[in-house]
# Entry
Amino acid sequence: MITLSEAQLAAWISPIFWPFIRVLAVFTSAPVFSSRVFPVRARVALAFLVALASQASFPDAPIIGFNDPHAVGVLVQQVGVGLSIGFAVRLVFAAVELAGEVVGFQMGLNFASFFDPSMGSQSSAVARFFGQMTTLLFVVMNGHLMVLMAVNRSLVSFPVDQNFLQAMAQMKLYKLGSDLFASALWIALPMVGMLMFTNLALGIISRVAPQLNIFAIGFPITLVVGLVGIAFTLPMLDQPFIALMGRVIDIFG
# Structure
């Protein structure tokens, strides 16, 4: 009769189980992966498949059984690192959406707000449009593969142990806040410059011809200029997106 000890089971299951928890945490928090249209069962199955298929690239990890005193600390680390990866990817989307909010404010479209179920708050039409374009770029430019690359690199930089606070100190996720605002302003800067020049021209026209109803023609002009600016600058959105995704991968690499 074949008998298996607890140590043997732990040696077989532990190398797959702990990376599986980390990948599942990433799928829970990262955009696209955490979408409601992605069934939970399919998400769990895909996380297990990724953890199983990536075993060859994972470094040798210590065997930690489920009855081990350090198991709770290891679980907290895997969930924390996985959620951090998803949060960092979410910041990339937030940077582009913030650029859309700034552009929408300059265009006068911030009153056209919709409820965003992914954020649980109101967002303008331009921000939603930029968010949808970012999702399309994420899929087309293999952003999902970049996320999996970040997971693989995180298992090298932050191996399976219970040093969760040390891992968080090395990530320095707070530095992504400055990148968020800087990147959003750089993305929105051409359109904001065009709209500021348009508003300046309208102000001069209103002083030269006071009888002209500037409020009647101002909104259509700024709207048209904003749409033209979006049409010209949107094809260049891939460059800041790739730069931000590379910044995210470098944090966990």
User: Anything to note?
Assistant: The mean pLDDT is 79. Residues 197 and 203 are 10 Å apart (CA to CA). Strands lie at 113-116, 121-124. The radius of gyration is 24 Å.
